[in-house]
Amino acid sequence: MTLSEINITPLLDLAFVLLIIFVITTPLLEQSINLKLPSGGQPDKFVNKRDIRTVEVSNMGVYALDKQRMSLEQLTTRLAQEVRSNPNLIAYIRADKDSRYELVAALLDTCQRNGIKISIRFEPTK
């Protein structure tokens, strides 16, 4: 007796497992904070991308360094370590326009005390 039909059950099982993995991991890929930046500013001058670290401040007081959430102390420690190995490092600060000023001021103060160059980011003016 010969089998003339292909058994597609293992193929469907694999497809469902991959679908479940995709659904679970997709939200974890984008860990950035949803921000509404104020408008203004001037166009950027050329900066080497290896010299840029993006710091985000949400209106809820959440800090993130290159899309990784952390406390202000952890963020400052990491930036200070990186600026010692790369003196050209610039921290791009993206703060939500509804953020409390004290959150941004604390970040600016710690950057200044550790010799970290900063650039405040805005939405381009229309």
Listing every helix as H and every strand as E from the N terminus to the C terminus, the arrangement reads HEEEHEHE
Q: Give the class from helix and strand content and strand pairing.
A: alpha/beta
The 3D shape can be described as elongated
Mean pLDDT: 81
Q: Specify Rg, calculated over alpha carbons.
A: 22 Å
Count, helices: 3
Oligomer state of the chains in this structure: single chain
Q: Work out the strand percent.
A: 15-25%
Number of strands: 5
Unreliable spans: none
**The biggest beta sheet, please?**
5 strands, mixed
Distance between the termini: 74 Å
Helix content: 25-40%
Strand line-up across the major sheet: 3-2-1-4-5
Write the layout of secondary structure elements.
Elements: H1 9-29, E1 52-57, E2 63-65, E3 68-70, H2 72-85, E4 90-95, H3 101-113, E5 117-120
Parallel strand pairs: 1-4, 4-5
Antiparallel strand pairs: 1-2, 2-3
Helix pairs in contact: 2-3
Note down, in words, how this protein is organized.
There is one protein chain. With 126 residues, the protein is α/β, with parallel strands linked by helices. The protein is built from three helices and five strands, in the order αβββαβαβ. It has helices at residues 9-29, 72-85, 101-113; strands spanning 52-57, 63-65, 68-70, 90-95, 117-120. It has a five-stranded mixed beta sheet, with helices on one face. α2 packs parallel to α3 (101-113). The longest helix is centred in the N-terminal third of the chain and has 21 residues, at 9-29. It is elongated, with a radius of gyration of 22 Å. 12% of the residues are buried. The mean pLDDT is 81.
